[in-house]
Amino acid sequence: MPQRDITPHPYRFARPAVVALAALLALPAALASGGRIPIHSVPLTITEPGSYYLSRDVVHSGGGEAITIAASHVTIDFAGHTLTKQNAGNYTVALDGDYTDITIRNGRIEGGNIGIRLRNTLGADFAVLVEDMEISGALNEGIYVQGHSLVGSSQAVIRDNLIHDTGNDGISLRFMWGGRVEGNVVQDPGQDAGDHGIYLHSCRGVTVTRNTVAYAGGDGIRVWYSWYVAVDWNHVTYNSGWGVNLFDGDRIVFSNNRAYGNGSGGFTIPVGEGHVNAGGNYPPPV
Questions:
Q1: How much is the pLDDT for 247?
Q2: Arch. (CATH architecture) of 39-277
Q3: Is residue 196 scored above 70 in pLDDT?
Q4: Where are the domains of the chain?
């Protein structure tokens, strides 16, 4: 096995603001945090729009989800803290309903069934942003986002995250109409042939760019039955399957990727798939 040499991820956490004691005593807690709402413990169900933040590291050992999002226009800032889910039978952060405009950023998630699972199968409008998170030890996916269908506006931006040691895909997007998967580091996502670093299933108009993926049980990046997808400037190494596998789809722009040491080879484009631009990849695709 080659020595694992993964480029350090440009990970960053926001530092908590220093607030004068007099002002802190004079204002309500939420106002003292710029109108944000603190999360001191879990489990928690968010039912109102707003900006929430973790005030400390928290652990959830019971059943059910640690944080359930049941509202639109919600931001959760982990503020550099860690949310640990000790029961792998449930999701750590979950959304399942007709909600949109969701942001999760700036912290760590350990354990659980899926680290972050955002699923809107009811409404056409769905927008999510996940950034600057470290997710590890999930039984299944690290980040799983599923839209309603290939109609309306369903946008996902997954950027600058570190995802490692998951039991299934590192990042999985399904039925999304637009978005970006950018600047993520995915390492050791699953051990089986169906466990991929980044997996697009039935998506349209998604860009996968400047990610580093290594040691997946399946492919580093797999695109399945998707259209108008761009896969470029990714670095995929030592995955058991292909570095990049365009399993099915049409009108895919596929360029300037680098692949080394993958079990099945660097890149594969199935015969008969149309409108694939495969320029600048190394080694050349087969």
A1: 84
A2: 3 Solenoid (2.160)
A3: yes
A4: 39-277
